Amino acid sequence: MDFPLLIVGLSRNFRKIIMRAGGCMLDKAGSTDKPAANNGATVSRVGVLMDVTGDQFTARLDSPKEAATSTDEDKTLGQVGSYFTVRQSGWNTLVMVDRSYRVADKQGRAAHMVHLTPLGEISDKGEFTRGISHYPISGAELHRLVDGSLAKIFSDYGDQDFKVGHLTSFDDIGVHLDASAFFGRHAAILGQSGSGKSWTVTSLIQSAVKSMPNSHIILLDMHGEYGDKEVDGLVAKSPFPADKVRCFRAEELEFPYWLLAFSELTELVINSDDENASIQISFLRSCMTRLRQEANDHLNIGHITVDSPLYYSMEDLIKAVKAANRETSDFGKKKSPLYGKFDEVLVRLQSLLNDNRYDFLMRPKTRTSTESLPGLMADLVGIGDKKASITVLDLSAVPFDVVPLVAAQIGRLCYEFNFWNPHCREFPLFLICEEAHEYIPREDIPRFREARRSMERISKNGRKYGVGLCVVSQRPHDVSETVLAQCSSFICLRISNPDDQEYVRAMVPDAARGTFAALTSLSKGEAVALGEAVPMPVRFKIDLPDPPPNSTDIDYADKWRDGGSTVDVEKLVNNWHKQER
Ligand SMILES: Nc1ncnc2c1ncn2[C@@H]1O[C@H](COP(=O)(O)OP(=O)(O)OP(=O)(O)O)[C@@H](O)[C@H]1O
Ligand SMILES: [Mg+2]
């Protein structure tokens, strides 16, 4: 597997790259200066294993004198993040350097030691498999990687055309993701504010729809970064191809109240601290089941429960609650046990109905019958009137107190879509939750319970029905542990908060400590990918999205220097009144 002659023709630039990456790739970059007299095994040897445990090896690197080559590149040999192989009795184990340090040997000479994380095995044909089936023993030789093997590992592993970036140390080695692992087994994109998450999401989706034109991606856009919009003559275009994307604002798509699960509705209209809460809940339960039955008699649906996704009229519900609240017997002399128990419920219902921000929920215009549900489901997954691979749901104008409810519904609808779809395996979906910490929190807070439950359900069972979930968050520490623990791929951008780092470190699978420790030193748009979608933990530069989302950093210096545009405050206040942005 050695190619001494090939190397002679390497360009100067390429050799520079090789040197930058320490022991990462080529055997003989230095051997062009010296005759390669030895056989390949000796030339590529760089050290020997001293200690082997289940998850870490320690090796002593040969001193420059012992080493067959001693060039400038040897000075950077063993850099943290570089790769080697351990060879023993026909087995090649791929390892990555986690730590590099020096100790004094018995003669007082400095010995260069490295801690190595085993990543997988490389066959004679250069094929990589994750995990270690044959552990080497101490005394095994440490070698540089054979020419091109790293590029082969990355291009063989993922889907050829689902390229998302390139290695930080090798511009020409592309990083490809395994699409089935990434989309089907849940993913997380984590990083502090401004680290490049939205750009990463955009770049990933752009690459996905290019290589997989029949994808079905649903994107919860909390800040209006991914959709088309026009306010005040300012036009912002979606970063996705116009023929592939469909953008909805919540008020266009409408998530009607009658789709809320019973627990979601009670959360909205019942104060759990109210002493009458349990009476209110049991009355609403029977009342809603009855209303649902009455309104859908003509559909001949056999079994109707309080949670069935069936239309009922809000007016009728309010009428029934009002009647119960005023119920008397004995010609008005005796108050019924329900009398006056619903004052607070009625006030809450009325205030929701009066506030036009909640119209998409409380006063739907188009979704006013059970028959309108298929239309909503089809639009949601991109097979409605206009077909789309990406459905962007712009929730930026949704009042913050109902965001969790809307997110819960979207999560539930996506799950139910494929749960009841006999051909779910032919129609896999992927739901991306931007700013997940805002509605899938770690703590059990009543207001977020339903959103959390619906996303946790996808993360636990979605794989079986072809519903994938991606959580995007700047505060991983605040995101549900269950959801993160089920993610099998992680793209971690810069994270400097120690709490977040610690939390993510505990979550990620086979985290190579060396790669992971780089989290604080990542630059913008640079990430560490871990988990099943990549062959091994890898630090890489994400391809720039083209075009980028509407989340570009504001150039303060430029705007403050030159004054920027004038502001129409009246218009601004008007927008606020109309809730338009
Ligand atoms: N791959 C990249 N290469 C170069 N610059 C980038 C890259 N990705 C992002 N940036 C820069 O970082 C800025 C912020 O990116 P982005 O909006 O994606 O951050 P974010 O992590 O989503 O932040 P927030 O958590 O606040 O939403 C962008 O305006 C862009 O200038
Ligand atoms: Mg963002």
From TrEMBL:
Coiled coil: none annotated. Residues 162-410 form the Helicase HerA central domain. The keyword Nucleotide-binding applies. Pfam families: DUF87, HerA_C. Gene3D superfamilies: P-loop containing nucleotide triphosphate hydrolases (3.40.50.300). The keyword ATP-binding applies. SUPFAM superfamilies: P-loop containing nucleoside triphosphate hydrolases. Keywords: ATP-binding, DNA-binding, Helicase, Hydrolase, Isomerase, Nucleotide-binding. GO terms for molecular function: ATP binding. Residues 455-528 form the Helicase HerA-like C-terminal domain. This is ATP-binding protein.
